[in-house]
Amino acid sequence: MLRSGMNDAGKPTHSSSTNPYIPKGDGDKAVQAYISAMPGWKSALGKEIGATVEKAFPEVRKQVRWNTPFYGKDDGWFLAMYCFKNYVQITFMTGSSLDPVPPKASKVEGTRYLDILADEALDREQLASWVRQALELPGRQI
């Protein structure tokens, strides 16, 4: 692997968990590069997650840091996603304050996760509800 996260052919490389190595960057272009590099079915899911967030909050801020796309507002970040071998994980920075609380606990106080497997559909309505709720809470600085 080259330091930039690109192979000799100029395509992104991936971690053993299948998460794309994408250079850090601000804005939609960096996040779209991450989503495009998500392997197989995960890329379509990444597009669906991004579209759902944008529909709920068209002014969303975006960035990629630590090979992870983040979605936020002026006061901080409220959502991120990450590829694992068998699932895509959505991170809710203020997840313990959402109703219903996303199902998976974190070691980080307040953070909750939703893991989506290949054969599971994204509940767009629930995701949009969580995004709208997160917009009412302080964002998290990273």
From TrEMBL:
Region Disordered, annotated ranges: 1-24
Protein origin, superkingdom: Bacteria
Domain YdhG-like intervals: 47-135
Q: Output this protein's name.
A: YdhG-like domain-containing protein
Record's Gene3D superfamilies? 3.90.1150.200
| Record InterPro entries | YdhG-like (IPR014922)
According to the UniProt entry, the coiled-coil residues are none
